[in-house]
Fold each of these.
Amino acid sequence: MKLYRLLLNLYPARFREEYAGPLQQQFLDDYREARTIGSRSKLWLSALVDLAWSIPVELAHELRQDLSHSLRVHARRPFVMTFTIAILALAIGGATGVFSVVNAVLIKSLPFRDPDRLVVLWDFNQKFTTPAEFHHWRTSSAYLEDAAQAYTAEVNVGGVSEPARVTIAQTSFNFFSALGSEPMLGRGFAPSEDVPGNDAVAVIGHSLWQQLFGGDPRVLGSKIMLNGSPMTVIGVARPGFDYPHQSSVWTPTVFDHSRLPYKGRGWDPFGRLKQGVSLAQARQMYQAEATQWPRPTWMKNFPPPNLVPLKVELADNIREASLILMAAVGFILLIACANVANLLLTRTAERRSELIIRAALGASRARLVQQLMSESVLLSSIAAVTGLAVAYWAAKLASLSQPAQLASQTYTILDWRVLSFAMGIAILTGLLFGVVPALLVRHLQPAGDLARMHSSVPRATRLRGILIAMQVALTLILLAGSVTMGRSFLRLLDTGMGFRTDHLVAMSVSLVGTGERSEVQKAEYYREALNRLRAVPSVEFGSAAYALPLDDGFGVGTITLDSGRESPPLLENRVTPDYFRTMGMPLLYGREFTAADTGRVAILSEGIASAIAEGSAVLGRKVIARKEPYTIIGVVRATRYFSPDSPVREQITLPVFQKVPDYATFLARVHGEAGDSLTACRDAIQSVDREVPVFNAKTLQQRFDETVTVPRFRTTIFLFFGGFALLLAVAGIYGVSSYSITQRRREIGVRIAIGASAQGVRAMILRQALWPIAAGMLIGIGGAAWQGRLLEHLLPAVPPVDMAACAASAALLATVAIVSIWSATSRVLELNPIEVLKSE
Amino acid sequence: MAKKHIPAPKDLLPLSPTLFHLLLALSDGERHGYALKREIARRTNGAINPGAGVLYGTINRMLEEGLIEESEERPDAHLDDERRRYYRITSFGRLVAQAEAVRMRELVQIADDAFGLPERA
């Protein structure tokens, strides 16, 4: 009987209250009649079936009633309902959007077979010179079931309608099978195809197939030219497949290092762990093996070779950022919950009379709590559905702004994990902010409260205070975080690169595979291209360089000073005349190259020049670079080359025409908007030779912006969340203070009527309202300091949260609070006390 | 909660067999839940024998729709348990039961015209 009574608790409140008695009675009657064990078991069985059927039916029935009641109640205050849903939708949607990124990057598996067993081999120093050597190594590995290598570089694609520049991966023949992602069309490489003479085959990427062949399936067997060599297309990769480094063409490698493109990214070796070998075991075995291999001297201080899961390697850039985002979004969700709880609390207090009357008419507390809880879950569910639109937008934004390494990842909210996450947090937030008003109901005392129906409730005031304090604390933490992030970002932008990025356009060409050219003909090509570039009306100066700041591809080497000393490693660049003028890098001493410079001359950066002689005394001295003596003709300031947070590097610059490269970047300083001249400059260079692809045509500002994409993204997100939190806090503080002041109209009226000054009353209200805010601030400052340490730990580039950032955020919040309370009091203080008292 | 609009008897048709039988069982006076259950089981030879949860769920719905009401009167105290509640049919309930019977009669007529019905044994 006890068990049956217990099971009856599963019915919704109202039904239980009405019918628990008769149900028990009936069960007891039946039980008394059933005397044998058999008939009692049968009775239990049918009772359980009955409960299993009727409990969900009754739950649905009461939920429907509660919800239609809630809709009627909320429809009377559409603003509160819309505001609540909007806040929650933004918070739930944001959280879901961020979760979809975390899901794609950290949870969902890669589109390869058994991806958890794929590992990347860091610092793989074994240089194989034939495919046979490599395959012997991989097949005899004790810890890898299979392994493959890929060498990526940029090449020119010709022999098609539109010449293009693409990233190519030269791979061991087993590349596709080792990853477990066979081409969508055609086939991967055969074992015989990584042998010299048989290697003129290529698999092309899905988007390149669309771009060059319009998605024609007859592409198999066609020829394309890669850097001038013909290749037969034998396959098309799956959509989105671009491993490694956004490759769009794959060809077999014959491990002939002398034939690999000079400006390559190097080798990417990866393997598949043997069944039964754990990552830790494999790592140990790899390290033991790798220490036997020769290691270049410049790597001697590097950490030992390592085995890293492919997934971790691919997510590396975005992992910390995603987790920080998730935390920020969690904060927003909590703030939104506190805010909505406060709003609902206000509404509940307003509805107190309704609730008291219902309680007096016999509705139990359980029934009222159930009503309020289902209202809040209804609100959060509507918000979750609306929030999916926000999530879709957030996921889209994340796909656009993600670091390029993950460009093959698409974030979708149409994933069961993401959708269950959204549903889960909707229910959780609904319960979280629903529980506060419900707490209030638990303490309703119908008999006593009926008499004091219109007075305010001390418990509600206290709860509101706690909620405000919590909101202030969380907002302060987020604000301090965003101020810190913002300051560090501004500092980053402020860092001088050492050259000007304004009014500059740049575009690259590569002559590889675009017809045979002698040194003289190559030089002639560049001269003609420069002439045509300088002839563009908006171009002020034009020049070309082998490598450009904000790009990789610099040579690195040491030079011998005339004292016989070896210099530290320097960046080496080759440039045409006018380069420094075009870049806006003034010469400290001497002059820059001219067309007349046919001898060996060099320009050094300040730091290395001063190691030879002070000031202009260095001009005319000699250094040995590439085993040849060069005369120093100029000195420039050292610059940051790769991004504003990279260190300043010393460099040596040589004239380009002394050894003409196959690859160059043209630069033009233009009048007016740099972006407006981009097409004209590009066309001018393209017009020299249609076969030579002109690529990466961008303004220097664009290139600069790309290097700060990740910090910019992080900062924007933080500022957005900080601002959003502030907005929520302002809305919360204003709403609650104006409500509680309206509740105290009578008291205020009395105070003014017996002679209190308006200012005095205002000061009193302000004092009372500021208490929870001050408490929240104290907690918030502590939290911000803790968060600062966490951020420092996760993002080494971020400076620690300083007290100034905290104080600024606190001051901002306090000002906002005072202003909102002040303006809330004005309305009441302007009232005539007599009228206030009359109306009561 | 007061009903905002009173439905016409036809709006509630067709009735579930349990509900119709409950109305029929209340036609000759007040009964409590358990008695109703037994009466229905007897009338249908056990074919309809609702469990307590289903029974009171249906009763709850009938109360909300105004088909039945709770009776304040109780039989002799010594015969009764105070946990028992007695129900009686309302005039609206009668109208609905009649409407359902008419609907059934029409259905039977259609079936008779279509297939012809055997005489009752």
Amino acid sequence: MKKRVGMEVSFAAAEAVKLCNVDVVAAYPITPQTHIVERLSEYVANGELDAEFVPVESEHSALSLCVGSQAAGARSFTCTSSQGLALMNEIVYITSSMRLPMVMMLVNRSLSGPLSIWNDHSDVMSIRDCGWIQLFVKNSQEVFDHAFIAYKIAEDHNVLLPVIINFDGFILSHMFESVELMEPDVVQQYLPPYEPKYALHPDRALTMGTYGMPAVFTEAKKAQDEALLASYPHILEAWKAWGDLSGRHYHPVEEFLTKDAETIFVTLGSFGETAGEAVKALREKGHKAGLLHLRLWRPFPFDAFCQAIQGARNLIVIDRAVSFGGPGGPVASEIRSALYNKEKRPGVYSMIAGLGGRDVTVRDYMQMFESVTAGKASAYEIFGVRG
Amino acid sequence: MSEISMPLCWRRETKPHQFCPGCGHGLILKALGMAVDRLQIADKVLFGCDIGCSLLAWDFFNLDTVRTHHGRTVPLIVGAKRVRPELVGIAYMGDGGAYAIGAQHLVNATMRNDKVMVVIVNNTTYAMTGGQLAPTTLPGQKTETSPAGRRTEREGFPLRGPEMLAAIAPPGSYVARGSVSRVRRLARLLEKGLENQLQGRGISVVEALSTCPTNWRTNAEDTWKFLEKEMTDYFPLGEFVSPHDRAGGAPKVNGNSRKGGG
């Protein structure tokens, strides 16, 4: 009998990390990530999780420490938000270029300034090109499941890349939701103990973090890019195996009423749940609306995406970060670029919404839909600006 | 608090302030306000506050105020002071900002003897984020990330910041520790720190022991007891003398130690 319980999403996240039997947790406090790390420190203190818990002096140190522990062959975990990620930035790139298969949960929060502890995606968009596999999940169950899935993907010897699980701060992290827990033996069957392909070991000396002269640097970057692109089928495999085990099936893009849709919303993270309600309401009124939730952000699932939006006339891409001075929101710009060479391509409307914790309601989505279908929307706008 | 007892440089329309009941920030900012009033420097002060509870001081004073990010207030104020040396720079931050995430800045500004004053609020925890283990958490003290209490064999001993800085403080620096349990004394230490800067002598670092009943989960009596007894035992109050200013001058370095060879 599977156990379904109600708990704070951060605690569900911590429970999952515990079930992953991680060896190392290093983190620095930052809102809204704190509850996950606090709960993990309790597990370590009461003996439920046999791990090194290191309350380090900054996020820069947290990720640096995890690079060290992962390089030494330990399953490592860290967790941050916003400025914490910004401070980690240097090491984020180091981790992926060293092909260290660690996992980070990024509880999305706005970057300063003005200072805001609330939710948007400006933090993660600042590391768009960092070379990690990046996932966006939208509810408690997805957060819980993706802890296992992320390690499964990362540690696959065909992948060996770090994974970020993005989920929305407060509007998801601090909610109480129902989650179906997994038995430890089932998790272990899916995620066996970590077997590093490469680890620092004085008996079998190797070098990690090499110097790249101009003669090899480009090749190293090409190899890194190929490795990230080549991870795609292995991500699908990890999802498939988890689906077989749990009955919960995940895909790079999740479609909701897209088949005959003329206008499709594209969202990342928890906003998909509200947008889904808007789509239902629009359908009831006879509008051909649909929703596409982008679960996999890196590597970008171009083919699956193009397949899913075939036949659509308009895409309303909700971005939760501003690319200052750019052609539109970061997600919308990528989608435009992905579609540019297609013969038949829909209009792409870039809507920036939900910055710094601003709610985007069903009514807001309906308003966006109305302005796009009436031909009144511009290609790029910051939606709902007052005054 | 009556109208009369507010320092003149306080911004009245932002009072009552936003700190929790029983928090020490109000008292420290009062002591700081008293020091600024006494020296009549309100029109010269650049007040910088950090991340953590100290950020709630961003609209506290009628002083030029700037807020940056966690731990970075020291270099920001140093930067402003370098281009406006006639002004008085104050960096106001917590123990996490000063001794953990921003420790490199504090150490290096002290080494350079930058002519600013750093005020460090020591409440033994990261209060704004809900009370996690900080560099100043006392041995055995329970926090959200040390649920069994600080274990010195794993997390080390709490940092005595002023003592550490005094050990590297150049001539002319001023390093002290006060407490919210002695507000007038604390105001005097802050005034001396500011005078030190006004005289262009060097860096001033004043740590203030503070209270956090919200995260300590203590009542008024236990809050005060923790401050007066446990904190003050570990973090002694007073002024710390730089090795350079001690009788006998700077510590002697044995330049011939290699030759000696033992």
